[in-house]
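2024-03-11 09:14:02 DEBUG pipeline.ingest accepted 1 chain
2024-03-11 09:14:02 DEBUG pipeline.ingest length=142
2024-03-11 09:14:03 DEBUG pipeline.predict start
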Amino acid sequence: MNDEYKFHAGRLRCVCFATMKKTRDVILRLTSKQANGQFYEKVVVVWLTLSLASVVLAAVNWVRLSRQLNAANQAVATRLEADSIFELLLGAASSQRDFVMTGNRVFVDSLQTSVTNLKRRFEHLASLAESDPALLARVKDF
């Protein structure tokens, strides 16, 4: 078994050396055929082209990421505003129910405050939805 391993290891070494020699010969042939460093000029041109392409791709990805972050921020702001409107509606309904049950005028004042704040919140929600016509139409219908 040990002799077989040595045979395969020696054979593998010969193959590796032969491959390295062929690679070195190819590189030498390429550099010797291209006079005055034209080979290196081509390598530099390819390197610069790839570098420029990576910068362009990075810029494109940055713009896409920026747009997606802006859209996400707007969606979160819209959702928070809708939640605050829902809370105001719940508070108004609760104030109305409490006034009907108790007859206490404090609940009417709370209801008036909720109605005033609702108008302002709906205007703010409409301003957030200006960029999306479908959402703006739904806000106006609501």
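2024-03-11 09:14:41 DEBUG pipeline.report Residues 1-33 form one domain.
2024-03-11 09:14:41 DEBUG pipeline.predict end
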